[in-house]
Amino acid sequence: MSRKPPRDYVAPVQRFRIRYAKRGRLRFASHRDFQRAFERALRRAGVPMAYSAGFSPHPKISYANAAPTGTASEAEYLEIGVARECAADQLRAAIDAALPPGLDIVDVVEVRTADFAARLQASRWRIVLPGLKPAEVAGPVAELLSRPECLVERLTKNGVRQFDVREALLEARVAPAADGAEDCAILTVVLRQATPAVRPDDVLAALRSVAPAPVADGWQQPPPQVTREQQGPLDEGGITDEVWIGDPLAADREAT
User: Fold this and answer.
1) pTM exceeding the 0.85 threshold for the entire prediction
2) Contact, 120 vs 248, CB < 8 A?
3) Residue-by-residue DSSP string for 36-53
4) Minimal CA–CA distance to 81: which of 11, 182, 28, 33?
């Protein structure tokens, strides 16, 4: 006698792409923590989820390029499949209300195009460096940008790996803090997303490696505050020297 799966297969009749943010203390939540919180929020909000087939069915959720633990983000993306038709605005409000403060739904659009992951080509990161003057950061940034290659090492689950930060680094700009504090620099970088992915901490490691010794000692204390501000398609051929990142959900909106 064959064993019946614990849940019948529920095929999606509609799919949605969701942009969400990790803010405040929730930046320390791991991706697995977010997955658990999001699935609980879907149940509390009464979202009619579609499920996979088999003896271990899962709700139809697909995540894309999660930010590293400890970094905030304004541009995280995922996709869900639902078992009956829903309105995007109502879905956004219901899920947002069910999530804890600091995990916030920014936008929801119905899926109308393919190859979404291919549109997530680059990210813009804002790195606050307390304890460092903008002039102390500008020199290492210029030195890094002048190099054709800059290798750093990072311990991964597969052992120590080497990354070429310069190949992924498309832009790096230094500015003073908005409040005029002299001992705080704001570093904005644009990183091309590839495999293996270069992360903001790799950029900081590269900058420490090219900085003069007294400056390099101050790059980690106090710890930097990192936020992903944008993630999307890349346009390097604009009319200015600034790298432009588009809205990855725009194609779905335009297809309606």
Assistant:
1) yes
2) yes
3) HHHHHHHHHHT--B-B--
4) 11
